[in-house]
Amino acid sequence: DGGITQSPKYLFRKEGQNVTLSCEQNLNHDAMYWYRQDPGQGLRLIYYSQIVNDFQKGDIAEGYSVSREKKESFPLTVTSAQKNPTAFYLCASSISAVSSYNEQFFGPGTRLTVL
Amino acid sequence: KQEVTQIPAALSVPEGENLVLNCSFTDSAIYNLQWFRQDPGKGLTSLLLIQSSQREQTSGRLNASLDKSSGRSTLYIAASQPGDSATYLCAVPSLRGGGADGLTFGKGTHLIIQP
Fold it and tell me: What DSSP letter does each residue of A54-113 carry, written as one string?
């Protein structure tokens, strides 16, 4: 089955810890994205990557880091510098980041809770 | 900066009714608009993508229209069913740096179909 997988489904973090959320896709898509969703708010873009070894900050990149070493994988690290990390994190991909072709497909999400 | 608004925020209707969800955006220079469905605690499912050159797009009981000049889109759901209960989100490209950078989302319409 082609699709996007995220792991883990639930993640608990202690204050001061860094944690990494996994996102893998087997759709052969060039572009990948990370969004954050908070109750009562729309999704907000954290980082995106148009191609391997390249990524750009979105609207709320502070306290997060990413890497794109392989086309299939785009892990997100939530660092201790992120002051309010409790949220639902969604990974997405699209064939290309060029707007004409950027129908985005989403993974099932990871719910991160800070203890 | 692109902003997306969805009205109403919540809607509850009896099964079998036809209904319309509204989405408006502030910058009409978009390449496309995408409608998603989100079930509680789940990721987003892409329903329809309308290119800027199109006026309508249909998938089963769903019909989405786009009026770029007025900055509006509607999602029409025919003969609603309890299984249609979910949150519906619309999104447009963020238009940062030529548009190749992710989506700007509305806060969604929470739809309940009463059996």
Answer: EEEE-TT-TTEEE--SBTTB--EEE-TT-S---EEEEEEEES-SSGGG---EE---EEEE
